[in-house]
Every structure is written in structure tokens, then in C-alpha cells.
């Protein structure tokens, strides 16, 4: 048996694939590439494929991660070549590394994401006003958001999950860069941060998001940010 960790992009039309559809794309690509994918046992066997934090439909990414288990060993370079040949446009395999069979799952280690959000403001706003709004937001100890849950609407403070937030404004186009908590333990959504920033402007302008791009996923250990390819 063999376990591999894969770093890949999700761009162009691939951004419209749901998490389940993405799983099926990779499973189909491995079948077509004659890659010896391992399956669970039982009446309904599933491929032994697991991903990092799911990406919402419509968001692009430069670095997504998945682990796959094979029932027999093949050279990593051969695996990468066979897989890439069968993948659709927008999904590019950047790296493949062999990891221990008992390596910790991606969802258990990835806890930080970096996003770039681009959009427009509906009114003229100075760059200084925009930067001051970011500083004011970061100075807060409490940034509440409301989320729908099975038990109703839940209020959550996302401030501790915002590790870094910067931005720029040119004419009416804004660009916000953020490093936030993600994963099973905690999760800050980029659109929530932009909404909180809009509220900080106190009616001076409304922010409309045009695109969200996930630049990276990390394993945050204190002040250190490690690639999931380095942590097994």
C-alpha cells in the first residue's frame, strides 16, 4: 500500500465544482489513468481519498490538498503524470509527496487559510478611509457574525480567527488580503470579514465582492505557518 499527498489548483471552470463533484473528478481521473486506487470494504466501497477544508463553489484556489491511498506502490512521478493527463482544465497537480500510511489527516492539521478578495465600492471613498476602516476593525475584540445552524441562528465572534488583514483601494476597486482560521476547529469565512469591514465604514460605502481566491492553506503552529506538504 502507498499513501500520497497532493497539492493542486482549482481555477477557471473548475471553480464551479462542488466538493462532492471534485471527489468524483479525481476518482474518475484515477480510474482512467489506471492508478491502483484503494477502496474501503463493505457493501458500498468508497475510494480512500480525503481533502483539506472544502472550498465553496465559485471560489478559485492556487493550493488545495488531498490524500489518496493506493493498493500497490507506483513511482510518484508516474502517478503525477498519469493523474494530470486525465484531469480537466483548471485543475493542475503542483506537487505529489509520499507520506506515512498513518499520517494525520489533512482536516486535523490544516487550520489557516489565506484569501484575496476583490470587489467594488458603490461610492467614492478615499484610500485613507478604507485603510482606517481596516485598522478600526482589527482594533476590535469582538466581531460578531450570525450563522444558520440546525438549531437555528448562532452568533459567533470571529475576531480571534483573523490573524492578518490588509487592503488597498484604487478608484472604486478594492483588494483585501486576509489570513484567517479554517478547518474543523474554527472557521472564518472571507465574505464575513468583508461584511464586517463594510459595517466599519458606517454607511460611507457598500462593498460588493467580485471574486474570492484562496492563495494558500497552512498548518499554523504558534507564529509559524507550515505547508501541509511539510507536516505529516
UniProtKB/TrEMBL annotation:
InterPro entries: DUF2344. Residues 3-190 form the DUF2344 domain. It comes from the Bacteria. This is Radical SAM protein. It holds the Pfam family DUF2344.
